[in-house]
Amino acid sequence: MVTRTNILVLGSGGREHALVHFLSKSKVAGKLHCAPGNPGMEAAAVLHNIDPCDADAVLSLCHLHEIGLIVVGPEAPLAAGISDRAREENIAVFGPGTSGAKLEGSKSFAKDFMRRHGIPTAPFDVCRTLEECEAALSSRKPPFVIKADGLAAGKGVFLPDIIDEARAICRDLLSGELLGDAGRTLVIEDYLPGKELTVLVVTDGKAFILLPPSRDHKRAFDGDKGPNTGGMGAYAPVKLPGGLLGRVTDEILKPTLAGLAAEGIDYRGVIYLGLMLRGEDAETDISVVEYNVRFGDPEIQAALPLLNGDFGMLAKAAADGALGECSITTAEMSAMCVVLSSGGYPGDFTKGIKITGLADKDEEDGTYVFHSGTASDGRGNIVTNGGRVLSVVGTGKTFAEARERAYKKIQTLRFDNMHYRCDIGQSEI
Length: 429
What we know:
The structure is a single chain. The chain is an alpha+beta fold. Among the domains are: 5-97, Rossmann fold; 129-184, ATP-grasp fold, A domain (Dna Ligase, domain 1, 2-Layer Sandwich), CATH 3.30.1490. It is built from 12 helices and 23 strands. It has helices at residues 14-23, 55-64, 75-79, 82-88, 98-105, 107-116, 130-138, 163-174, 244-262, 299-303, 311-320, 399-410, and strands at 5-11, 29-36, 46-47, 67-72, 92-94, 124-127, 145-148, 157-158, 186-189, 195-203, 208-210, 215-221, 225-236, 269-277, 286-292, 307-308, 329-330, 334-342, 367-371, 374-376, 382-384, 388-396, 418-419. A hairpin with a 5-residue loop joins strand 20 and strand 21. The longest helix is centred in the middle third of the chain and has 19 residues, at 244-262. It is globular and about 60 Å long. The termini are far apart. The mean pLDDT is 95.
């Protein structure tokens, strides 16, 4: 007999809605809770309007509702130490503690970690003054890659082509004007051409399971134009040359896990490998662009529908340090996620716009609609409440079918100034 566990999901976006949806199908899930959640989750979970970074509030909620497992969606609660506090009170957590969360919370820590453990990444400099930035920029050719050291909600990477613009970005970051304390230390690194690839890994620090490889679209406009965003769409699985995932495992993932163990970091949760492939064949150079310590949004919205198995069992096994006893397979399918955003995102945008076309039940046409930035207006309407508003996912036996279903579904949804990219996954076809 399977023992059911009450589960708390922390977060409020499309990633968390997808997690809630698939956890609701799990044999090990008892009562589902989410903090703070969004209206799309209300059918599957009880919502609690608390700050997911407030450890005291989270733990009080866990004790009140007998939560046995916390699944952390975004990075901020991990950096704030939610996992450490919960584990001190014998509550299992799917997500690393603060020491592991530094892989995402500090770009300079991550780059130094890779250098210490021989993990391939672009040459870099850590800069804390304008003089150090000038030296780092002067030694490189455009486009310049400037990264804020701290958490910046996906907005901390800059790719200026002109050195005067790069200097201005460095000045505004170091002063705190642009991103506050997150930008007071910078990483300036070599630009690596090629194709980006995301590999999401579930691990308990020893065993690991790779999810279907995916590719994100960061730029706001078609043709990869415009400013960087938190992600305008993704698709999975990415077709890769034979043996390439094996190289990722041997050259990057295993050294990463060995490095964490060597440094005494008990890591349970997700390792997001943001990779750059320099060529098209199995022998291509592979470099780590970034680590994240949680599922990517919108990559996970495309990856989760492809899993054959119980995601709740997977998350619980990782949190309990028993992932070696768990297995999961991938369906012979494809999935694509398109993000519907507020006009103006990632800049200024208007909230509170009514959304029409949302269904009240699970989709049965091979599509999913996950709420990313929505709210209830108190009058029975769902309204926009963020830059990224909805994540629309299409699945199919072929990638072309998945893409067609996603864009067809989008035509049933509407809110004023709705924006989305029309070329997500086009290169795959």
